[in-house]
């Protein structure tokens, strides 16, 4: 029984690390693409830079929200692991 609990905790630690890594990687790639496209649009039509900037910040907020949801899910797995309750410890 103790080996099963240790296996679940080890797998959970690996999953939490992967969630953190992919959330950071996805957000970094998203911000890079977003910033690049904003600069392209502002360079192409400078008079629309203000409107593009507002939309860029809205999308940036959505990008951050996705990574925060991933971090919250990882925190749930880390501190209140529902998989351990399924074992019946």
From TrEMBL:
Annotated source species: Methylohalomonas lacus
Name listed for the protein in its UniProt record: ATP synthase subunit c
InterPro entries documented for this protein: ATP_synth_csu_bac/chlpt (IPR005953), ATP_synth_F0_csu (IPR000454), ATP_synth_F0_csu_DDCD_BS (IPR020537), ATP_synth_F0_csu_sf (IPR038662), ATPase_proteolipid_c-like_dom (IPR002379), F/V-ATP_Csub_sf (IPR035921)
GO cellular component labels: plasma membrane; proton-transporting ATP synthase complex; proton-transporting two-sector ATPase complex, proton-transporting domain
CDD domains xref list: ATP-synt_Fo_c_ATPE
Site positions for Reversibly protonated during proton transport: 64
Family: Belongs to the ATPase C chain family.
Function: Key component of the F(0) channel; it plays a direct role in translocation across the membrane. A homomeric c-ring of between 10-14 subunits forms the central stalk rotor element with the F(1) delta and epsilon subunits.
GO molecular function terms listed in the Swiss-Prot or TrEMBL record: lipid binding; proton-transporting ATP synthase activity, rotational mechanism
One Pfam family hit: ATP-synt_C
Residue ranges of domain V-ATPase proteolipid subunit C-like in the record: 14-77
Keywords of the record: ATP synthesis, Cell membrane, CF(0), Hydrogen ion transport, Ion transport, Lipid-binding, Membrane, Transmembrane, Transmembrane helix, Transport
Membrane topology type: Multi-pass membrane protein
Subcellular location per the Swiss-Prot or TrEMBL entry: Cell membrane
PROSITE patterns reported for this sequence: ATPASE_C (PS00605)
Main location: membrane
Annotated coiled-coil segments of the chain: none
Segments crossing the lipid bilayer: 12-35, 56-79
Tree of life domain: Bacteria
């Amino acid at each position: 029984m103790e080996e099963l609990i240790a296996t679940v905790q080890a797998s959970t630690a690996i999953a939490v690390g992967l969630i953190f890594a992919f959330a950071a990687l996805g957000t970094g790639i998203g911000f890079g693409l977003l910033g690049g496209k904003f600069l392209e649009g502002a360079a192409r039509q400078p008079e629309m830079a203000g409107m593009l900037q507002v939309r860029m910040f809205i999308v940036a907020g959505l990008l951050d929200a996705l990574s925060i949801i991933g971090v919250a899910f990882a925190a749930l797995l880390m501190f209140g692991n529902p998989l351990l309750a399924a074992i019946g410890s």
